[in-house]
Backbone:
């Protein structure tokens, strides 16, 4: 059972019109150790006193090792009338909330020997890949594998952490960033931008059963459709790792 602990808000900013990036530190002074790809749960109560919780992937970019993280960063999508939205949108620096974790196995495995990773995300489902960047840098250098990050959004303003992924692509040979925009193209389109949903880019990458491992995170419909595409391409089910994000009131 993962422990519960207080989180104190350090700072926050808007990533997109309906997505907020929040930076916390543990309010009890204890270290927080997590594996990139894991998530925390925020615990709170509805207005009627009923307890509830919400899950958020950790977006913190660490050093690529098992050292404790000084900050716990998450991205929160605002849901109209949502109880968690009310809580987190009105949180001010210095105030605390209760959390537990880390949880989950949506992580890169040390035993993997694949030649290529296909990392697919929509919305805040992109956050675990941000946390993985130091690990990916090491894997690319040590194993010579390729990494393709496929991010689906409606428009340029919803490409969360776009600057981080773009900078990483410039710095790390072997990493490729594909932005799939379903509603409107960038003001200045880039070489690997695509019009449409992530399945368009994923199919164009020609998934290979003998060399690829895929990660799918975000909208449940996207996850299901991309899973079917990859399975039809011959990828073994253990090589298609999934995490669905479902909005809750």
Residues:
């Amino acid at each position: 059972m993962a422990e519960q602990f207080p989180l104190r808000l350090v700072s926050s900013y808007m990533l997109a019109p309906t997505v907020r990036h929040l930076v916390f530190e543990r309010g009890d002074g204890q270290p927080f150790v997590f594996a990139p790809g894991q998530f925390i749960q925020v615990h709170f109560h509805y207005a009627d006193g009923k307890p509830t919780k919400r899950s958020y992937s950790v977006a913190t970019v660490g050093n690529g090792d098992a050292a404790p993280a000084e900050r716990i960063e998450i991205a929160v999508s605002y849901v109209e009338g949502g109880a968690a939205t009310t809580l987190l949108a009105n949180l001010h620096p210095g105030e605390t909330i209760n959390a537990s974790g880390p949880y989950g196995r949506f992580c890169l495995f040390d035993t993997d020997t694949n030649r290529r990773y296909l990392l697919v995300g929509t919305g805040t489902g992109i956050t675990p890949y941000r946390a993985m960047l130091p690990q990916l840098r090491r894997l690319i250098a040590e194993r010579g594998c390729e990494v393709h990050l496929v991010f689906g959004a409606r428009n340029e303003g919803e490409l969360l952490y776009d600057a981080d992924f773009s900078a990483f692509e410039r710095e790390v040979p072997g990493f490729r960033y594909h932005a799939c925009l379903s509603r409107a193209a960038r003001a200045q389109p880039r070489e690997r931008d695509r019009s449409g949903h992530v399945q368009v880019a994923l199919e164009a990458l020609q998934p290979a059963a003998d060399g690829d491992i895929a990660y799918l995170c975000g909208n449940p419909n996207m996850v299901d459709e991309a899973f079917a595409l990859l399975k039809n391409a011959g990828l073994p089910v253990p090589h298609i790792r999934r995490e669905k994000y479902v909005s809750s009131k």
Summary: Helices lie at 83-89, 127-143, 162-171, 198-204, 220-232. The mean pLDDT is 94. The two ends are 26 Å apart (CA to CA). The CA atoms of residues 221 and 244 lie 9 Å apart.
